[in-house]
Amino acid sequence: MMRISIKVKMALMVFLIISAVLIAVSFIIIDQLKKPLENEIEKKAAAITRNLLRSGSEAILTGDELRLSEDVVAYFKVMAEEAGVPYQSLINLYLRDCVAQHRQVQIIWPAKST
């Protein structure tokens, strides 16, 4: 049986302790470096999302609410499915065309019956 001297055992213990401390410090450093990177990734993801919402014919989300009748929404959903686009985009495209063509709303109210 091979006997290990006390000096070798002590050196091995010191090596193991130093290794454990270095590993713990490495995890702390990695965690500290990771936080700013995660924040940067979140900021870039938010910017990309904003740009996608603003691109093309998509309207910028403003938080304003547009109230539409169920039959109107159903009508645009059918057309949108046939065209292969989201129905909100189709409504926005139609309204954008109205703006581009300077269409005026013509409302004819029924006469009051007395």
Describe this structure as you would to a colleague.
The protein is 68% helix and 0% strand. With 114 residues, the chain is mainly α. It folds into 2 domains: 55 residues; 42 residues. The longest helix has 49 residues. The N and C termini lie far apart (118 Å).
Secondary structure class reads mainly alpha
The rounded distance between the terminal residues' Cα atoms is: 118 Å
Sequence stretches where pLDDT stays below 50 over 5 or more residues = none
Count the helices. How many? 3
H-E string: HHH
Provide key terms for this protein.
114 residues; mainly alpha; 2 domains; 68% helix; rod-shaped
Per-chain topology:
Blueprint: H1 6-54, H2 70-83, H3 87-100
Helix pairs in contact: 2-3
Write a short abstract of this structure.
This protein is an all-alpha fold and 114 residues long. Helix content is 68%, strand content 0%. It has helices at residues 6-54, 70-83, 87-100.
